[in-house]
Amino acid sequence: MKWLCVDLGTVRIGLAAGDSWAGIASPLSVIEAQPWAAAMEAIARVAEAEGAGGIVVGWPLNMDDSEGPQAQRCRRQAAELARRTRLDVRLWDERLSSFAADTVLAGQLTRKKKKQWQDALAAATILQDFFRADGPAVAMRPDAQT
User: Fold this and answer.
1) pLDDT at 17 over 50
2) Which DSSP letter does residue 140 get?
3) What domains can be seen in the chain, in order of their start residue?
4) Measured distance between the N- and C-terminal CA atoms of the chain, rounded to whole angstroms
5) What are 33-41's contacts with CB under 8 Å, separation 24+?
6) What is the pLDDT of residue 48?
7) For residue 118, which of 34, 30, 51 has the smallest C-alpha distance?
């Protein structure tokens, strides 16, 4: 099945796509996070264009596995995406994905170009981890209780 990964930020949203059968994720693009209604429509269009059967939303849990305000916001927005797209939406722990993206991009791009791709690469990192850990079988849906 094809999956779209969404790395929700307050300024930018990174998008990546991949296939669970192949287990490979690729960064796609970065979109503006505000206004949320427009961002959600853009995500829905990309999911349709990519033929995604599901959406993985990065879930920024605290290091002690608790949900802080950002993780709660991501859960709410993931639930909205599920209602809007009617796709299988899952939450996936995104801790350290931005750090991993920074490591990959270190010394390769200008600061401006790096900012443009960092969120999409972070989304690809999240999706790659989702595939590696059999996320389709174990990942939580946004309306589930923790």
Assistant:
1) yes
2) B
3) 2-138 (3.30.420.140)
4) 26
5) 33/8, 33/9, 34/10, 36/77, 39/13, 40/77, 40/80, 40/81, 40/84, 41/84
6) 97
7) 30
